[in-house]
Write a structure and sequence with these properties.
The chain is an all-alpha fold. Helix content is 77%, strand content 0%. It is globular and about 50 Å long.
Length: 267
């Protein structure tokens, strides 16, 4: 590993640590799944997307060469995401298993294979790096845009209950680290999407500060629309425990019915 750019190495190493923490953030959710031997309606799609993203970044780093820090973190990411998906497939109901396998075949097998074949057959050298880099950048931008659904939810409900501050914090710090790594190594395909990641991360933390003490006064506003929960599950890059959302949401509404009061709770 080259130390010609020591600051790039430092930011890349920091990015590895922070991204690793983000990858491991769903561990409590999957411990719960193993304990209850049920996925309880939990969505697997975010983990299929995360696996696909990690696979793409490994391929990009390999053809670019000398991008070892990108390879290390995404190799770990692939192992972790595969572990999550394996647990999911063990405990998910039949329909959810079939949907998960379909998504994995579509993204992680068919689409990834097409990208490999097209880039290897029709492009060479620097052009191949550019094509794969542009695809990765476009995909990363769409993933980083996922927090828009959470931001919309916070503004709509005036509650940060389903937007954990520390997860937003570590995602933001990770985006900053990888932005500077891309900047210092002059890798536009790494730096550019992380500008968006940093921006959305800062917005989420500002919203947390604004709404963290806000109290809702109407019982009906405490219950989150099912479609919003579904949108978050489908769009979130690191995954949101929708089953936990729904359970806490129902418990809160049920408590309001029993007591006649409307109380706001915070994670």
């Amino acid at each position: 590993m080259s130390f010609d750019h020591p600051w790039a190495f430092i930011f890349g190493l920091l990015g590895n640590i922070l991204s690793g923490m983000v990858y491991l953030s769903p561990v409590p959710t999957f411990r719960r799944i193993c304990k209850k031997k049920s996925t309880e309606g939990f969505q697997s799609f975010p983990y299929v997307v995360a696996l696909f993203s990690a696979m793409q970044l490994i391929y990009y780093a390999v053809i670019k060469t000398n991008a070892y820090l990108i390879i290390t973190v995404n190799t770990a990411g692939c192992i972790i995401e595969l572990s999550y998906l394996t647990i999911y497939l063990i405990y998910a109901p039949k329909k959810a298993k079939i949907n998960t396998i379909k998504w994995m075949l579509l993204l992680n097998v068919i689409l990834f294979s097409l990208i490999l074949l097209i880039s290897l057959l029709f492009f060479k050298g620097a052009d191949r790096v550019k094509v794969v880099g542009w695809f990765n950048m476009s995909f990363s931008v769409s993933v980083f845009a996922a927090p828009l659904s959470i931001i919309r939810l916070v503004i709509r409900t005036k509650s940060v209950e389903f937007m954990p501050f520390f997860l937003s914090f570590f995602l933001t710090m990770s985006a900053i680290a990888w932005f500077f790594y891309g900047l210092l190594t002059r890798d536009v395909y790494v730096a550019t999407p992380n500008i968006l990641g940093f921006t959305f991360g800062v917005i989420q933390m500002i919203l947390y500060i604004v709404y963290k003490d806000f109290k809702k006064g109407k019982q009906q506003e405490n219950k989150l629309p099912e479609q919003v929960l579904a949108d978050i599950a489908k769009m979130s890059p690191v995954g949101v425990d929708v089953s936990k959302m729904e359970e806490e949401n129902e418990n809160r509404v049920g408590g309001n019915k029993r007591t006649g009061d409307s109380n706001a709770s915070h994670v």
